């Protein structure tokens, strides 16, 4: 475990694949491949509610950011800007 992650570690990737049932087919830009705007709430809730290692939190935040970026592309900035992503 790194004090300050410099990238997504294989261990963090494997743990998130298992927890969120994500694809493990790609290694390069994996967080972009598994990004899914429809699962954004699930990823945010998971980030806040689990006891993740620093590396796992880094990897999960990369997925959250990539998912949000995909949502911006699909819905447009004006429509998405007013949306709130909250954990229920």
Short description:
The chain is an all-alpha fold. It contains five helices and no strands.
Please tell me about this protein's structure.
- The protein has five helices and no strands.
- It is mainly alpha-helical.
- The protein has one domain (10-81).
- α1 (10-20) crosses α4 (54-75).
Give the helices and strands, then pairings.
Layout: H1 10-20, H2 30-33, H3 40-49, H4 54-75, H5 77-81
Helix pairs in contact: 1-4, 3-4
Q: What descriptive keywords fit this protein?
A:
88 residues; mainly alpha; 5 helices; 59% helix; globular
Largest sheet, in brief, is: none
| Order of secondary-structure elements | HHHHH
| Beginning-to-end CA distance, first to last residue | 30 Å
For the secondary structure, the number of strands is 0
Query: What's the rounded overall pLDDT mean?
Result: 84
Number of helices: 5
Structural class: mainly alpha
Poorly predicted ranges (pLDDT <50, ≥5 residues)? none
Shape: globular
Q: Give the C-alpha Rg.
A: 13 Å
User: How much helical structure, as a percent, in the residues?
Assistant: 55-70%
Strand content: under 5%
């Amino acid at each position: 475990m790194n004090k300050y992650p410099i990238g997504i570690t294989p261990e963090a990737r494997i743990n998130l694949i298992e927890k969120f049932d994500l694809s493990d087919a790609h290694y390069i830009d994996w967080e972009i491949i598994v990004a899914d705007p429809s699962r954004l709430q699930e990823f945010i809730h998971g980030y806040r509610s689990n006891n993740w290692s620093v590396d796992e939190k880094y990897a999960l935040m990369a997925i959250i950011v990539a998912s949000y970026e995909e949502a911006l592309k699909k819905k447009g900035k004006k429509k998405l800007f007013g949306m709130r992503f909250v954990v229920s």
